[in-house]
Amino acid sequence: MSDPRPLTLLLLLTGCVTAGLRQEDRAHWRRLESARLTLTTSLDDVEARKAFALLENDVVAILAIFGERQTPVRPVDVVVVASAYEFDTRLSGTSEVKAAGFVIRFPGDPAHPILVLGPPSTWLATNPRGESSLARHELTHVVSAHLFPYQPPWLGEGIATWLEPLEHEPGLVVFGGGNRSKLALLLPRVPERGKQPDPRPIVELWSASRMFGATATGVGFYPSVWLLVHYLANERAEAWRRFLEEVASEHGQFDEAFGHLTAAVELASLDANLARYLHDGRFVTGRVAVEPASEPRTVELGAATWDLVRGRLLLRARNDAAAGEALEHGLTLAPADESLRLQKISTMKASALPAFVDDWVKVAPTSQTARYLRRALHAEAMTGAAQDLGAEACESLAQLLIEYVGSFDAGLRFLEEALPGSHARYNLLDSKAWALAALGRWEAAAETEREVVRRAHVAGQGAFFDQRLAAILRHELP
Fold first, then answer.
1. 154, 42, 90: which is closest to 313 by C-alpha?
2. HEC per residue, 69-86
3. Does the residue 404 lie in any domain?
4. What is the pLDDT of residues 258-294, one digit of tens each?
5. Rounded to 5 degrees, what angle do the CA atoms 104, 300, 333 make?
6. Domain span holding position 234
7. 187 and 134 both lie in a single domain
8. CA distance 260 to 245
9. Cβ distance 422 to 430 under 8 Å?
10. pTM score, two decimals?
11. Minimal CA–CA distance to 452: which of 415, 402, 409, 411?
12. pLDDT tens figures, 334-359
């Protein structure tokens, strides 16, 4: 289930008002843990272990497919809610959605999102293995974020749809087969006059701006990016492998890697090659050996834990008032908790932020995030922010300040710190142009966006950014 914001926000374990909870919602909660997966759930012990085994098997498989057999730095984090009422009405924000799961990302920590799933009956497929492509799709987003923290929409959704149909065999996983649901959208059963529809043009799929750029959506987007990743993995395997290695590298530059990829796959003929690949229908599968799932350690959390888990998801339901109340309670219990502080900032007005950050520095004097936030808000020198926090964290903090709080000056300072270490990342330049435009600095915004357009055209993505530059020249926010 996608979210209209570029990055959604997640509350860490916080308290909230318990009055009014239905009796069946006061479930007993437990946490199942291994080196690869942490499952927090209100399922009973038997069902929790079944869900854990299914999810851990997929985590192991996804890591193996990308050649990552080692244990992730942090376990993949999943919450499974046993109550359909709580999930649909309170977490999804509407009783009509009936969604089976969604991914929530932290501001300032793009590599460690969390997957929230409803009752297993809503996401387990009716096949002999009891596997679920929906849960796997969302789980792939979480695992791949550990491997590739910066993911434009085409890459994130392409990888997730590519791995939906993987199959487990004893000691092996089979992946990369034809995805029937995506093929059904690209290849109707009765095409008019024998003509098959082609996938979306590549220029519509490759949009590099993550923070403030439009995310491609619509029925045709998901099957088209599935086809693109499938083609790259099978027909341009070496270029695909190098691209992923560059993206995963700690010091890698996504836009440089992207430029290498577009050169290797002959961008001018890529649309025709994709259409040909689709109509040929030779969807080759791969096989990799996998380790067995771990036996989890179980920690019983007690009957009150649902109140805490529900608190961490209130912002997902756009309930800012309840989220703010929950966060206030959480911060009385853990005043130095960095993630709680960042989530609280997302509910605040810009005028209240300096005092809040000053208090954060007092209770957590070793927090570099708090220290640099205070510097940004007080217009002090930001030297060292990108080195101490990382360019990705600077970008995410900029998003938090600009998009959620409206503190454009402070957000712009974080962007400018991120840029020197990311000279080829024109998505950051694009974000800078957006912030300058929001501050009414239209000439500087236009100058910055012109550089974005120049770099984007080199990588074959200029059309999207041409439109953004035109909006800025009209003194309109892109």
1. 90
2. CCCCCCCEEEEECCCHHH
3. yes
4. 777 877 887 778 888 888 888 888 788 889 998 888 8
5. 60
6. 178-284
7. no
8. 12
9. no
10. 0.70
11. 415
12. 788 787 788 788 878 889 999 999 99
